[in-house]
Amino acid sequence: MKIQILGTGCSKCKALTEAAERAAKDLGFPFEIEKVTDIEEIMAFGVMMTPALVVDGEVKAVGKIPAADDMKKLLSDGAK
Predict the structure, then answer these.
(1) How do the pLDDT tens digits run along the chain, 80 residues long?
(2) Which of 13, 52, 71, 74 is flagged as catalytic?
(3) What is the DSSP code string of 17-70?
């Protein structure tokens, strides 16, 4: 599973990265995390607000940090 965190490196972006990593580890999924900080790349996803969570190329959350259970559901849905 490829998890991308879209954002410029703010504290919310870091918190989203940590939450996604924790959820993926809890679920036991093999994963890689990529931080996308380039504004052009972020906009290519159609995202206008950060941070954003992308799982295997699909935008799953924008402008917020999902709660732990919600994060696990987003990752599980992305792994199917």
Answers:
(1) 999 999 988 999 999 999 999 999 999 989 999 999 999 999 999 999 999 999 999 999 999 999 999 999 999 986 65
(2) 13
(3) HHHHHHHHHHHT---EEEEE--HHHHHHTT--SSSEEEETTEEEEESS---HHH
Provide the whole-model pTM: 0.92
Question: What is d(CA 12, CA 67) in angstroms, rounded to the nearest whole number?
Answer: 13
User: Into how many domains does the chain fold?
Assistant: 1
* CATH value at residue 54: 3.40.30.10
Catalytic site includes residue 10: yes
Domain coverage including residue 36 = 2-79
Residues 6+ apart with CB under 8 A from 12: 50, 51, 65
- For residue 74, indicate whether it is catalytic: no
DSSP 3-state of 76: helix
